[in-house]
Amino acid sequence: MGRRNTEVGIVASLLVTALLASACASDQPTISAPSRTTGPAHVLQPIPPTALPGNSADPTDLDASSIASDAVDIAALEALLDQAGFVGGTQRQFSRVHGGRRRILARVLTFETPEGASAYVAWLRDHGDEVIGRATPSASLQVPRHGVVLVHEPNPCCHNETRMFLAMWHQGSTAVTIEIAGEGARETDVPELLSQLDAAV
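^ that's the sequence the OP posted. Answer follows.
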């Protein structure tokens, strides 16, 4: 009888211990594994495939690293984009062969404030040579939103070089850029191309 009572007492003690452990565990916060977030598929709506003439490539989302790769000093441009509140961007390329090879690269970038978009456009205006080579502002070409067009004239000694145009402007917190290059890049076409892109975005 005494042995049986001893066994019952041991079982009861084990049950009490288990209940106490369970109660303590319930008081601890539940720690779950962190979930992986990928963010939105598109920060901006893609530039429409019909925004500009030519064959349109698939749109590409842009982050600060892809924008900063345009610069000689990548770290400096990344810092500027961070200070300017860069949110994200999108680009689409348009190309044609008929009438002379021409490639157009259009970009739309968004910032947290209009001042941020203005700061990026100012940087691009001052560092256009890092994007298209030695360039000068055009006094004759009109740009939407009081922007600017930089023109790169090919070096006569370099037969593979062509004339290039780089236009930029901003509307509120959105900056728009367009690069036009190739043997079919003609100054007379630039105003209409800028107008079409401005209307499309």
